Amino acid sequence: MSNEPQQWEEPVIERPQYMRWLERWKDRDVIKVVTGLRRCGKSRMLDMFRTRLLEQGVDERHIVAINFESLDEEYPLEAKPLYDHIVARLAPGRNYVFLDEIQHVADFERAVDGLYVRDDVDLYITGSNADMLSGELATRLTGRYVELRMLPLSFREYRSARPADESADRSFERYLTYGGLPYAAVLDDEQDIADYLGGVFNTILVKDVARRHPKIDMTAFNEVAAFLADNVGNVTSATGIAGAMQQSRRGISPNTVRDYIAAMLENYLLFRADRYDIKGKAYLRTLEKYYLGDPGFRFWFLGKSGGDIGHRIENVVYLELLRRHRTVRIGKVDSTEIDFYASDADGDHYYQVSMSVLDERTLERELRPLHRIDDNHPKTLLTMDRIGNGNHAGILQRNLVDWLLD
Questions:
Q1: For position 207, what pLDDT does the model report?
Q2: Is the pLDDT of residue 312 over 80?
């Protein structure tokens, strides 16, 4: 038996939403910044885009691609030497430059800025850290970049990677449990999936979290992450998490918990959904909720235990709404809660999520907050029910799986 480590090669899965974005911004005078969770498909997406460029007639000599985590070739890891290295490889005319995981380059913002101002470069960069756009890069390049935030596979994309004879409901059961990282979508053995997800999480922990936070207590960090994975969709505070962990005989302060949550947020392991007062048109600073960047991390931390399936479904809906609407928050209407309030250029959208509303009292409870919203924006109730779907006085009830496949 070979002792070589298993290579996790991402499969080729069509990501039409992201491909359209890349084609829309091609040759436009802005830097294309692609961010997202490790292994969510950033590198593969840009590889597919480079193939598209070749199909459109771009000469391969006009494409420069560097992956700073690849061991196939050594590249300068400081700004000026990197800039000189790339310029030396440019061909006469338009060049497409791709810099993958650029955060490994010291003062990379200077190299990016220098390449951007050249008339012969169309620049694309990727990174796995959300803070990449909140520091020097954003300061230097305000108004000169656009961001594509990539997420793991949508359920529609996930279905395309599964066997054709697998039912949509069976695929969704897998998706809900194992998540949407591209490689996990093509694995069938449960232990293989667990090993893969553990490898992704530990890579983030070692390459990203520990590098930026060298004094971090890895054991405590894992315990906080596991707690959050088991409480997606619940109102969660740092003080509450610290108290729960003290009960399990591990002392940890609320400030440390906040630091660990910030580290998970900056590496897309976690997303925070803030609360918004819909009637008062005001953002609220308390009672936020957290959702995993990929539902599969819950399986890695906690195994296949059932947990609250309603909140796990909420996690899937939250990520899907981020794909469709960009901005997603928890809604407050008087003393009631709307699961998700989303807004975009088309206006506001309101969503309730429930496992089932076949019980009349449950249906009434889920519809009540939506009825209290006095506007004509779309209101949707998503459930796993296959019967009872339709219109409830302007509120559209839909099967969740069907909605995900839209």
A1: 86
A2: yes
At 166, list the tokens. 């697998």
Tokens read off for 291: 């959702």
Mark residue 396 as left, alpha or beta (left: phi above 0; alpha: psi -120 to 50; beta: remaining): beta
Rounded Cα gap, residues 399 and 355, in angstroms: 10
Q: Which uninterrupted H or E stretch holds 238? A: helix 238-247
CA distance 390 to 202: 45
Set out the domains of the chain in order of their start, with CATH numbers. Answer: 16-150 (3.40.50.300), 155-404 (no CATH)
Angle (CA) 58-63-65 rounded to 5° is 150
pLDDT given at position 71: 84
Provide the token pair at 269: 């392991």
User: Which secondary structure element, helix H or strand E, spans residue 177, and what is its range?
Assistant: helix 168-178
Contacts of 81 (CB under 8 A, 6+ apart): none
Residues 7-42 as b/e (b if ≥16 CB within 10 A, e otherwise) read ebebeebebeebeebbeebbeeeebbbbbbbbbbbb
pLDDT exceeds 90 at position 32? yes
Percent of the chain past pLDDT 70, that is, above it, reads 95
Q: Where are the alpha helices (DSSP H) in 303-359?
A: 309-325
The string of pLDDT tens digits covering residues 254-309 is: 999 999 999 999 999 999 999 999 998 898 888 899 999 999 999 999 987 766 89
Summarize the confidence of residues 196-221 as an average pLDDT: 90
How many CB atoms are located within 10 Å of the residue 66 CB?
20
Q: Which long-range contacts (CB under 8 A, 24 or more apart) does 115-120 make?
A: 115/83, 115/86, 116/31, 116/141, 116/144, 118/87, 120/90, 120/92, 120/93, 120/94, 120/95
The number of angstroms, rounded, from the C-alpha of 181 to the middle of its chain's C-alpha atoms is: 10
What per-residue confidence (pLDDT) applies to 5?
Answer: 39
Q: CA-CA distance, 322 to 129, in Å (whole number)?
A: 18
Pairwise CA distance, residues 174 & 377, whole Å: 33
188 contacts 74 by C-beta, under 8 angstroms: no
Pair 68, 77: CB distance under 8 Å:
yes
Residue 321 has phi, psi (to 5 degrees) of -65, -35
What's the token pair of residue 270? 């976690």
**Mean pLDDT estimate for the chain:** 92
Closest CA to 296 of 201, 168, 378, 208: 201
CA atoms of 277 and 283, how far apart (whole Å): 6
